[in-house]
Design goal:
The structure holds two protein chains of two kinds. By secondary structure, chain A is of the alpha/beta class. Helix content of chain A is 33%, strand content 18%. In chain A, the strands form two sheets. In chain A, strands 1, 2, 3, 4, 7, 8, 9, 10, 11 and 12 form a ten-stranded mixed beta sheet that branches. In chain A, strands 5-6 form a two-stranded antiparallel sheet. In chain B, 47% of the residues lie in helices and 8% in strands. By secondary structure, chain B is mainly alpha-helical. The chains are: A alpha/beta, B mainly alpha. The interface between A and B is large, with 39 and 44 residues.
Amino acid sequence: MVKKMTRREFLSSVALSMGALTLNQLLAGCKPKTVPLDPTATDVPTSTFPPPTATGPLPTKTTSQVVTPESTLTKSPPTAEPTAVGYPDLVVTRGGDPDSLVRTALAALGGIQGFVPKGAHVIVKPNICVAYHSFEYAATTNPWVVASLVKLCLEAGASRVQVMDFPFGGTAQEAYVRSGIEEQVKAAGGEMVIMPFFRYVKTDIPGGIDLRQTDVFDDILNCDVLINVPIAKHHSLARLTLGMKNLMGVILDRQALHRNLGQRLADLTSLIRPTLTVVDAVRILKRGGPSGGNLADVQQIDTLIASADIIAADSYAATLFDLQPLELPFIQAGVNMGLGRCDLENLHIEEVKIGV
Amino acid sequence: MSDAVDDIERTIIKHPHRRWTTFRKLTQYLALILFLLLFVFTWQEQWTAELVNLPIRLDPLAMLAHLLASRTFVAGSAIALTVVILTLLVGRAWCGWLCPLGTILDIFSLSSRKRQSCLEKKPIAPKWRSVKYILLMTILVAALFGNLSLLIFDPLTLLFRTLSTSIWPALDQLVTAVEIALYQYPALARPISSFDAWIRPQILPPFPLHYRQSLLLGAVLLTVILLNVAASRFWCRYLCPLGALLGLLSKFAIVTRKVSIECKGCNICSQVCPTGTIDPAKNYASDPGECTVCLDCLEACPRGGNSFTPGLSIAPWNTYDPNRRQALYALAGAIPALTMLRSDAIKKHPHPHLLRPPGVNEDDFLSRCIRCGECVRACPTAGLQPSISEAGLEGIWTPVLIPRMGYCDYSCAVCGRICPTNAIPELDLAVKRVQVIGKAYIDQNRCIAWADHIDCIVCEEMCPLPEKAIHLEENYIEIADQQEISVLLPFVDRNICIGCGICEYKCPVTGQSAIRVFTA
């Protein structure tokens, strides 16, 4: 028989382990912070970084996450590097089922392997904003678009593909099921992740003009590839919710963004740089967004926009609603910060009509 | 003294009846674990409603009181008859073998050594056992008049409510704090997140849940446990109204404890009895109305001097058992209290924030709600909370929607399915979506757009209705130096607002929301 622990022994071992934990905390405070995000890139003033002696690019570890003015000055966004010369800046596919829309678009961009290295940890971030309606209501991203991206990433050799969002109405569990995304993603071999709030990391936004700091879900900062898959739909304040607005799903305090939304969305975009933005316009919600609920507001146009440049993708998506890109304050702010391009007439855009 | 205790311990080790008490303890732990599992998976109806509300439907007191008060019979409540039949067969075995609160009291009971010294010092007079019968009769009299307030003292509702509003949120806080502390170590980050993905959202909530008065509600249970110091199973002996009901039935039980001629009066059984019902003065006989059939006496007796055997007889009435005087106490307590509750100010003017779960008819809700707290646990947003003042004293700890704590999820109709008495009607999601809980009003003095002239629109964005019960109008407002700025001002269309409260929940104004839901 195992000897029964006495109360005294129990209490002293609890006290000992508590003490050890506290001591650990104190000791951890003495050494440089080891938060998941590399702090050197955010703490050093951008004007003196990189140091004059450094001639190469910034540490590659952080380029996909933190953008310094140096790297944003270049015409193409930093994450567009995989797109070799000759491939278009932006691809629009029309008139097929969601899976062929995605596959055709990615093929035209030079193939998924240009974005997803072998063994990469990929996060696909759809818009699953509410648990209220199924995908036909165009409040949440088309499940087959998401699943198709998951499959492509796995085919390219990604080690894990996670899909996540933080709904504002209803629980994530409910929303994942009702949107139909969970079923399709699991069938495709991806994993649905519910974002626990303790994993948000307070992160500086070095390039931020109005928003200087926010709590970001840590895997979004740590993953190798982030694929942003918004659905194009109406929104009363932003006018439209597209790729940049979809990034609000990875931070904790969304209410903070509602003041001066355009600029703050651009500030957030300067921190979180998706490798690829795929705008789902299979169905678009023209009124009553973002939560929708009325099929009369939904228009099925079987269109998909893909680009490494989030601003370009949003700009093109704006035209689907008969809006000029610069009519959207967040695009204007993003362009001002050099986060991407909205001059559609000068971009290399490839439009593919499937089945024609 | 210590010799006697040593004697007890020695005989316990030697005695063959030990397997009975081991079997009983095993049953107790299994029942407690099952109760906890059903509790855990009540959240957002992760297990089907008919299964998770089973413990409450097994409660004959709650079901009887509901039957009397509402004058309606809920088919699912017939299952409580199994407990009635069990009691008529073997006495208060529910209390000793199955009741989760009883098991918790056993877990937190003093060792027999400590118990002895406590009892020797301050024995409690047996007449106090009548308190539970008076409470039972008061509950039943009040139920006849349509009142169910005192069901807050039913052991199952008490435990379930405390688990949902105090223990589980506190456990979640503790686990989260440990997770946060350990997550900072890179080596632990992966295991911690896998652990977290495993426990959430199935066992613990995906985000912290907050309940009003959670400390107070926890203190009630803590008091019940601490009373164990005064006497083991103090609650079951003196207070428990369900125990009282089952005790009355046990008077007619078939299997009861009998003392044989083998008994040499060593007094060991009366010392081990957790409910202290073995009376040396009555030749070590016990009262079946008090005995929880735990079989500790069977195990402890060194000579086989007592047995639990079948036989048809009605147990003798004791001084503390229900009598005319007690019935008068109950009537004299219940009727003036009820009439006073009904002359309470709240009956003239309902509380402005009395927001009931969707579909509830306030007129007969108080005579249908058994205060079990199943809906509070099931609500995925923790918007349903035990009421404090909203429903008056009569409706204390009945469910109310507190939108600032959580909203009524447009995609959820769980509370109606989980409610064991149909006090909250079971509605299809499409029907539930048009139930009016209340109506939202904007406080223009606090609203960011109205008062500070800054675009906000959060309430409009959050409104789940397809046609949006909140619309925005662009207004030009003159500020200093004849300058005009444009602001989007929110307006509520109260013809279609359902009062789900998500606007109040999400309103970014600090503290009290600038848009609030009022009783419709």
